Amino acid sequence: MVAKLARGVKPFTTVTYGGMRWFQTFYVHWIVPVDTLTPRIPRGTTVDLWRGHAVVSMVAIDVEGPAPRALLQTPMAHLFRYRQLNLRTYVDGPEGPGMTLLETRIDRPTYALAARLAGMPYHLDRQLVYEVRSASLALRARGIDVEALVSDAAPSTLMPGTLEYFACERYRAYAQLPVGRTLCVQIAHAPWRARPLALQSPLSPAALGLPVDVPPASAQLCEDVEVVVEHLAIPADTADEPLLAPA
After folding, report:
1. I need a labelling partner for 128 at 20 to 30 A (CA). Which of 17, 22, 62, 107 fits?
2. Is 40 helix (H, G, I), strand (E, B) or coil?
3. pLDDT by residue (tens digit) across 135-162?
4. In whole angstroms, what is the distance from residue 121 CA to residue 119 CA?
5. Are 163 and 143 a contacting pair, CB within 8 Å?
6. How far apart are CA 48 and CA 44, in angstroms?
7. What DSSP line would sit under 226-237, residue for residue?
8. pLDDT band at 232, cuts 50/70/90?
């Protein structure tokens, strides 16, 4: 029997890891030069392009979890609630297309510390305030002060092929661990339903640490979703002893 190389992953678990709730997710997307991103993505991934262009997105969100899903159905759910603001880009990796965080801010120190210990780019921002009203929203954080008007159109699903679909419909997150390996987290939730936004002031990814000054290409506000954390894995590294499979 001749052995051949197999592309594999080392799974942490194949059962549901927990759940989250994401409330009123605010997206802003920019087209940026790909060479600003290649040094900052996890090992074993490549920048995923939309119509030949690299994309980054700012995401502001109210989050509950991760926590056991049953616990999020109880009055204790508020103990797992925090606001998050992140800048992310899009990659292709061993488990398939996904995204990776370039910068993340949250308003609760416990979550910031835990994520930093895992190698995630999380920072505490005590100035972070995110409020959604019936026809507008406001986001304030260190170096950021932006308001947006919410379209009165009914929320709708995102159209395949559009920038919004490319950026928002992502169900894997890749991160580089302190030991140099890459972690992949896979989630599931219902397709996004969104309404367009009109930003009322200039905003660029430079406000979140990416030295690029470009105008936004798109912005939207998405409805709440229930999220399941399905799978965590460390994709096999090419430097490891290869996995063997029968010929």
Report:
1. 17
2. helix
3. 999 999 999 999 999 999 999 999 999 9
4. 7
5. no
6. 13
7. EEEEEEEEEEPP
8. confident
Q: Render pLDDT for 195-206 as a digit per residue (tens, 0 to 9).
A: 999 999 999 999
Inside any domain, residue 78: yes
Residue type, 40: R
Task: Give the CATH number of the domain where residue 33 resides.
Answer: 2.40.400
- Name the pTM for this structure: 0.85
- Alpha-carbon distance of 156 to 195, in angstroms, equals 7
The pLDDT assigned to 111 comes to 59
Structure tokens at 97: 């297309």
| Radius of gyration of the chain from its Cα atoms, rounded to whole angstroms | 19
> How many residues are given for the chain?
247
Number of domains in the chain: 1
My answer on whether omega of the bond before 68 falls inside 30° of 0, hence cis, is no
Rounded to whole angstroms, the Cα distance separating 160 from 57 reads 18
Residue 107: give the domain boundaries: 20-170+193-226
> 38 by DSSP, 3-state: which?
helix
Q: Does 35 reside within a domain?
A: yes
The residue written with tokens 């392009």 in the block is 49
Here the tokens at position 198 are: 């009109």
Distance CA 103, CA 87 (A): 5
Distance of CA 78 to CAs 31, 66, 128, 133, 242, Å? 36, 12, 18, 20, 45
Euclidean distance between CA atoms 202 and 214, whole angstroms: 10
Q: Which of 4, 2, 39 is nearest to 244 (CA)?
A: 4
